[in-house]
């Protein structure tokens, strides 16, 4: 019997702590009279992380910043085309950054509940896996995280076709398209600080996101190839500074700097999987326009990267 068609979807479990008690957000669908997590199908070509943030806003009227990935859910559905399929739902823990608007998209009620009450109200056993994982993260002190995102600049005009100084070399058409595509992906993780090499191709990789979010791109010469060749420690010190600051941030730089920066982040890896991801990226490189999201718990010397994700073009 052939495998069932896969239907990708994504969602979140927004969480908060009120008077020292953890709460999570559930949504109610009157069509099915069920309580579950905010989720929905991916649009064509859409990244799961983008869909998770979008669907959460559409179904709960809450804007969220994605945190740590949670266990996936897979289950059989009878789809709208009257065929059976396997729904594959990616989930993230999420923190609310804004809660305005009205309920839409077939949701008539939301509820913030403690873990026990949420467990009892959920209508599907498959939704309990995400709740149990989130509660375990909270108990371990590793649920409250902030993202530190490393971005390799998108594709630029070849050096052979550029007669001016290299740091002025701009993105090509493919690079500009990738820079635009990064806007919703970065927005799902909500970096508040946008830091870039002062080279044009790096600045312009993050510029569309900065414009969309009214954020200033902070240009740093230490992140350029030329400065790194002379004083590599300054780029590493810049990453250390962001870790001490502990605010959601995206950093865009060049291929020659990546091994040193990724190895620095590897030192903060909390699990073998996280360290392996940074080892592989440092050894084999990142594609142009690729980003790595580190979910960081704590700041400074106590900072621990408890999860990491890669997004290639």
Automatic annotation (TrEMBL):
InterPro entries: His_Pase_superF_clade-1, His_PPase_superfam, NUDIX_hydrolase-like_dom_sf, NUDIX_hydrolase_dom, Nudix_hydrolase_domain. The keyword Hydrolase applies. The keyword Hydrolase applies. Keywords: Hydrolase. It comes from the Bacteria. One of its GO terms (molecular function) is bis(5'-nucleosyl)-tetraphosphatase (asymmetrical) activity. Residues 5-135 form the Nudix hydrolase domain. This is Putative phosphatase, Nudix hydrolase family. It comes from Nostocoides australiense Ben110.
């Amino acid at each position: 019997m052939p495998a069932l068609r896969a239907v990708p979807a994504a969602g979140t479990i927004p969480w908060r702590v009120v008077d020292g008690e953890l709460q999570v957000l559930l949504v109610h669908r009157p069509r099915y009279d069920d309580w579950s997590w905010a989720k929905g199908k991916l649009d064509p070509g859409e990244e799961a992380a983008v869909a998770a943030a979008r669907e959460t806003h559409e179904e709960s009227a809450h804007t969220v910043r994605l945190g740590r990935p949670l266990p996936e859910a897979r289950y059989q559905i009878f789809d709208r085309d009257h065929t059976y399929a396997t729904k594959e739902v990616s989930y993230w823990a999420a923190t609310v950054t804004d809660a305005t608007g009205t309920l839409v998209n077939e949701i008539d009620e939301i509820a913030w509940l403690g873990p026990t009450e949420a467990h009892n109200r959920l209508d599907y056993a498959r939704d309990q896996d995400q709740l149990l994982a989130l509660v375990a993260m909270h108990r371990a002190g590793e649920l409250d995280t902030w993202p530190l995102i490393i971005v390799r600049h998108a594709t630029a005009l070849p050096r052979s076709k550029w007669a001016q100084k290299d740091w002025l070399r701009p993105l090509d058409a493919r690079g500009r398209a990738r820079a635009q595509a990064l806007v919703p992906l970065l927005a799902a993780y909500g970096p508040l600080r946008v830091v870039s090499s002062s080279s044009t191709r790096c600045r312009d990789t993050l510029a569309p996101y900065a414009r969309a979010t009214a954020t200033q791109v902070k240009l740093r010469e230490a992140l350029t190839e030329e400065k790194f060749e002379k004083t590599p420690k300054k780029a590493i010190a810049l990453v250390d500074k962001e870790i001490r600051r502990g605010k959601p941030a995206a950093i865009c730089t060049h291929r020659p700097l990546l091994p040193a920066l990724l190895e620095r982040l590897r030192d903060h890896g909390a699990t073998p999987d996280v360290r392996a991801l940074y080892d592989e990226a440092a050894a084999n490189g990142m594609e142009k326009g690729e980003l790595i999201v580190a979910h960081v718990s704590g700041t400074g010397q106590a900072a621990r990267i408890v999860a990491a994700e890669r997004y290639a073009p």
